[in-house]
Design brief:
- The structure is a single chain.
- The chain has two domains: 31 residues, no CATH class; 142 residues, CheA-289, Domain 4 (OB fold (Dihydrolipoamide Acetyltransferase, E2P), Beta Barrel), CATH 2.40.50.
- The strands form three sheets. The chain has a six-stranded mixed sheet.
- The protein contains four helices and 14 strands.
- Helix content is 11%, strand content 42%.
- The protein is mainly β and 183 residues long.
- Strand 4 and strand 5 form a beta hairpin.
- The N terminus and C terminus are likely disordered.
């Protein structure tokens, strides 16, 4: 048995066939038969912007949750939520991206992501779809991009009717105050 990134290759299958298990089953099969694989992003909207995170980092998407505020916390950290007994920080992407505040009656949606530092909830306005994008549609963010977006946006994908801004999951989920300062 050979272990690959995110999946298992089993050599007990008949010659010429391999069994794949795990999240990356589709991509592993596509790579083995020479098909160009598409990248997948969980998309969501924040202040009208279409943003996305690699689906491999997304644990789940849940509706607005009761939140406990913590005194003296960074402004981007809206509070803590209890997710089935696990206490996780909730980061407001509007504040993280230095955008306008959400209306008082506007409920946020939690995109729960896994990072090297643990599980974090990113608060967004509206959830989109899981989008498949081709690697050739990728563009680096322009050098003129400033502020928090410069640190958080790792790239842009050109879609038929809009642009998908891809967030660096680790930086977006960080409560580090330095990330929130303009470059």
């Amino acid at each position: 048995m050979i272990f690959g990134v995110g999946f298992i290759f089993s050599s007990s299958e008949p010659a010429g066939r391999q069994r794949f298990e795990g999240v990356q089953e589709f991509f592993a099969i596509a790579d083995c038969i020479g098909v160009t694989s598409a990248l997948q992003f969980c998309t969501f909207y924040v202040d009208g912007l279409l943003l996305g995170i690699d689906v491999q980092h997304v644990q789940e998407v849940i509706l607005n949750q009761p939140m406990t505020r913590v005194p003296l916390m960074p402004a981007v950290l809206r509070g803590l939520i209890n997710l089935r007994g696990q206490i996780i920080p909730a980061i407001d992407l509007r504040r993280k991206l230095e955008l306008s505040e959400r209306a008082d009656d506007g409920l946020s949606i939690n995109v729960v992501v896994r990072t090297a530092g643990g599980v974090v909830s990113l608060l967004v306005d509206q959830i989109g779809d899981v989008r498949n994008v081709a690697e050739e549609d990728f563009a680096r963010p322009p050098e003129t991009l400033r502020g928090a977006a410069r640190e958080l946006v790792s790239g842009v994908y050109k879609l038929p009717n809009e642009l998908l801004l891809v967030l660096n999951t680790e930086r977006a989920a960080s409560t580090n105050v330095e990330t929130n300062k303009a470059a």
